[in-house]
Amino acid sequence: MSAAVIRPGATLGLLGGGQLGRMFALEARRLGYRVHALDPGHDCPAGQVADLEIRASYDDVYAAEMMARNVDVMTVEFENISAETLEAVAKICPMRPGASVLHTVQHRMREKRFLSDNGFPVTPFREINTAVDLKAAVADLGLPAILKTASFGYDGKGQQKLTPGIDLDAAFGALQGQQGILEAFAPFELEVSVVAARSATGETIAFEVAENDHVNHILDTTVLPARIPTDIAREARRMAEAIAVALGMVGVLCVEFFLLPGGKLLVNEVAPRPHNSGHATLDACVTSQFEQQVRAVCGLPLGDPALLRPAAMAQLLGDLWENGEPAWERLLAFPDVKLHLYGKVDPRRGRKMGHLTVMGDTPEAALQRVREARSALTA
Ligand code: AMP
């Protein structure tokens, strides 16, 4: 595959202006690029650090076209952007990842079908359009099972765990007319993920496997490397790279896995962008996931993803602000802790406001240290 290299000094366009876009923009600017960010909000996290913030909705095709005329390549930090916008952009400048990648992963049924058709292991699933479909799927897959809306779900939104005795008509009703997917419950021991990059040149590299702990469906802590046998880690990285190739991805993607007792990996979902579980790469790897996205979409050689030392990341949610401003000076008294705040002014419950990263001699030591540091914020 050959692609024109987009060199430092060029302008990168970003659809989405959240924290992922902010960290991408900071890394892009360090590398000497200019960044334009489009987001429906004003003073968005990425807009605060970009050269230009464009306020428009993701389905405003005209705004995206105007933007595309002034950038050298367009990328995303958010996958739920309309196909119409993505296709319009692609007529004007390179859109990386392409509209077809986003189309596949925007919809859980399409995503699961793509994975299983390409030989990647997933939990058994069924398409749900009617209450009759749901009853038949439950008879087939058994309970417990997870019922999800097929579109626009993240952090557990639009998800119901179905357990024996549940009212299936009510569960179907909660889909509110949206298409659903029923997934067999995966009795996982651990949730792990792999961030991988594929450059416009076709070069593909994965980071170390991350071990993730969720609280209320939101990522709470990540440890790098995951505490799993090396052959399983190798297989997870191999699969993430193979998924990037099969999708025709250009950019960074994250593959989330369930690790079952006995060592089998199932792919849970794919995000075609940098990921929350890759945040520690900013402080703990030779190249961060955000620098890697810049390199990948610009057709540059990829950077070394090597992990310098074991590391842990802890999310800072708006909940920490419940009794007033967190005690930053107590946190910063931990001299080894790296604080990242996303520039959001409204600390709502469950809202991702920032994160902490700490390195340690072992994954356990890093995890313990990052938890201690976070507790100090509200002690
Ligand atoms: P998702 O939005 O699909 O990533 O799901 C959010 C979280 O719900 C996952 O990180 C899991 O903890 C849980 N979950 C989702 N699907 C399943 C499943 N099929 N089996 C067991 N747990 C699941």
The CATH architecture of the largest domain can be given as 2-Layer Sandwich
Into how many domains do the coordinates divide? 3
Mean pLDDT reading: 96
Helical stretch tally: 12
Q: What helical percentage do the residues reach?
A: 25-40%
List the uncertain runs: none
The number of E-state strands comes to 17
Order of helices and strands: EHEEHEHHHEHEEHEEEEEHEEHHEHEEH
What bound compounds does this protein have? adenosine monophosphate
Q: Any idea of the CATH class of the largest domain?
A: Alpha Beta
CA(first)-CA(last) distance: 54 Å
What is the CATH third-level topology name of the largest domain?
D-amino Acid Aminotransferase, Chain A, domain 1
CATH superfamily of the largest domain: ATP-grasp fold, B domain
Q: What is the global morphology?
A: globular
Question: Can you tell me about this structure?
Answer:
The protein has three domains: 11-95, Rossmann fold, CATH 3.40.50; 124-184, Dna Ligase, domain 1; 190-376, ATP-grasp fold, B domain (D-amino Acid Aminotransferase, Chain A, domain 1), CATH 3.30.470.20. Helices cover 30% and strands 26% of the residues. It has helices spanning 19-30, 61-69, 83-90, 99-105, 108-117, 131-141, 168-173, 230-247, 281-284, 289-297, 328-332, 363-376, and strands at residues 11-15, 34-39, 52-55, 73-76, 125-128, 145-149, 159-162, 180-184, 190-198, 204-206, 210-215, 218-224, 251-259, 265-271, 311-317, 338-341, 352-359. Strands 9, 10, 11, 12, 13, 14, 15, 16 and 17 form a nine-stranded antiparallel sheet that branches. The chain has a four-stranded parallel sheet with strand order 3-2-1-4, sandwiched between helices. Helix 1 links the parallel strand 1 and strand 2. The longest helix is centred in the middle third of the chain and has 18 residues, at 230-247. The protein is globular, with a radius of gyration of 21 Å. 47% of the residues are buried. Adenosine monophosphate binds at residues 123, 146, 153, 156, 183, 185-186, 191, 214, 217, 256, 268-269.
